[in-house]
Specification:
It contains three helices and no strands. It is mostly helical. It starts with a helix and ends with a helix.
């Protein structure tokens, strides 16, 4: 009886971890889309197409910072869940 309960608990924990990993993967995959959409919005704004590459890169660093950071965090979360330290 105890073994059956332990097996049931282990299966529930395993399913919960799989759900968390799936959610982390979904967020990691969605991150680049959000970042690229931000880059596209900024590029299409009037005046941005005529600035130098260096100035535009500097501008992007300030306006798309949260999208870039969200992508990094989501990716790191997903990768750390895939290869946890033991």
């Amino acid at each position: 009886m105890r073994m059956a309960i332990a097996a049931g608990v282990a299966m529930m924990i395993s399913a919960a971890m799989a759900d968390e990993l799936e959610d982390a993967h979904r967020l990691a995959v969605a991150g680049p889309d959000s970042y690229w959409k931000c880059l596209a919005r900024e590029y299409s704004r009037d005046g941005n197409q005529s600035v130098s590459g260096l100035d535009f890169a500097s501008h992007l660093a300030s306006v798309c910072a949260s999208e870039r950071q969200n992508f990094r965090v989501a990716l790191m979360d997903y990768l750390s869940m895939q290869s946890p330290r033991r």
